[in-house]
Design a protein that fits this description.
The structure is a homodimer of 239-residue chains.
Chain A lengths: L9 E4 L8 H16 L5 H10 L1 H9 L8 H15 L7 H8 L11 H11 L1 E6 L3 H11 L5 E4 H4 L6 H10 L7 E5 L2 H9 L3 E5 L21 E3 L2 H7 L3
Parallel strand pairs in A: 1-2, 1-4, 2-3, 4-5, 5-6
Helix pairs in contact in A: 1-2, 6-11
Chain lengths: 239, 239
């Protein structure tokens, strides 16, 4: 490990895709829900459309077209439209809340819990996600993710890739920018972190989007560390 | 347990005094520091004076006499005066930073880690402290406190007993007020939480202030649950 990286004291993690496999988790959860309720629908397509609306919806907040709202509320707005589109009928309000909270019930990739547990011995490990605090905290309990603290776009009322999120997280941890390393499976997230002076670690998650192409720009960007799992990241960081 | 309390989903904890024994921890830490550096001083008196300045300093923020600053910075302002008062000389800036960060190096009461671990199985357990996020997170790593998330006055830019802190915490957890129980060793903290509709648990910590009287008002206030340890609290809550 380079001398420069030896200054790193905290790792902040993107969560959706980087730490948890949202796609498989949501499809399985909603298919099981559909079976329990006797509702047939293409839950996989609905899931992919739901996530497909994620960046465009956040971009409306980032561009100031709509006010900041927590991700749970943005998810719900999109969900209501998709339930109509996919012809899912007969749901109570409690059912809709339950479906919307599927984002609180995501499982880690197989290497996530052991990798984080190992990294936590050497570093402060925190989320730095667009998910709201309650979502991330409930997910951590559900999936057993051992965060030291839960940092969220909600705290800064800005979504990644706005610089306020990265700056705010380093400031809240009382660390210098180059003492904090952003960990993500999306290079534009890392590029935005590096622009604020943070260190970066890329974790490859080729299966994140299933059959659809990942909606992230292909960037000519090399992170300070690149790995195929959180275990390999721990190895490379000497944790 | 009453039906009313069965609605509780999250416990938010006061930390200084309720979960950690700040006084014993700081005196031991600073005495060890003094021996290493060859500095003689009445570290116990300095500790008691330092904590003694806590409420008056926070009250200046609460009354709007000074702007919100994180607790680390308020602690440092008081510390600088006390080092002079107690004739502690020859410290580098790094030494002063180290001393100020003693509030990040506090040990739990003997029942704190086992009690929280038990309560965490049934409830979301979070801090709700005047300590800043970095302080609480570093302390959790130091003392092994298994928080699900770290909530702090810093997030709301108000100090307890301002209502914004209690309201903000329930809102951030996406829970109704009566689904959240404030746990504290100080009844005025609980009274302020109840005024916002939260449930309350009192934990008796008679040793918190050592030989000095506790600087909290004696209130005719009975919490929803009262216990002598976090283990007893878990017992009473069926956790």
């Amino acid at each position: 490990m380079s001398t420069e990286l030896s200054r790193v004291k905290a790792l902040t993690f993107d969560v959706f895709g980087t730490v948890v496999d949202w796609r498989t988790s949501i499809i399985r959860d909603l298919e099981a829900f559909g079976r329990r309720k006797g509702i047939k629908a293409d839950w996989a397509e609905l899931t992919d459309d739901w996530r497909g609306a994620y960046r465009p919806t956040l971009n409306k907040v980032i561009k100031g077209e709509i006010a900041f709202q927590r991700l749970d509320d943005l998810h719900r707005g999109v969900l209501d439209g998709l339930l109509e589109k996919f012809g899912v009928k007969g749901l109570s309000e409690a059912d809709k809340v339950h479906i919307n909270k599927v984002w609180h019930r995501l499982h880690g990739w197989p290497d996530s819990v052991p990798g984080l547990t190992r990294l936590k011995r050497k570093y402060l490990v925190a989320t730095l996600s667009n998910g709201n605090v309650a979502l991330l905290t409930n997910m951590a309990k559900f999936a057993g993710l051992p965060w030291d603290c839960v940092l969220s776009a909600e705290l800064f009322r800005h979504y990644k890739r706005d610089p306020e999120v990265y700056i705010g997280a380093c400031d809240m941890l009382c660390l210098k920018r180059d003492e904090v390393m952003m960990v993500a499976a999306h290079k534009d997230d890392l590029q935005a972190a590096r622009a604020q002076g943070m260190k970066t670690a890329y974790v490859e998650r080729p299966g994140e989007y299933g059959p659809r192409p990942a909606p992230y720009p292909k960037l000519d960007f090399t992170a300070d560390v690149e790995a195929k799992s959180l275990g390999e990241l721990a190895e490379k960081l000497g944790a």
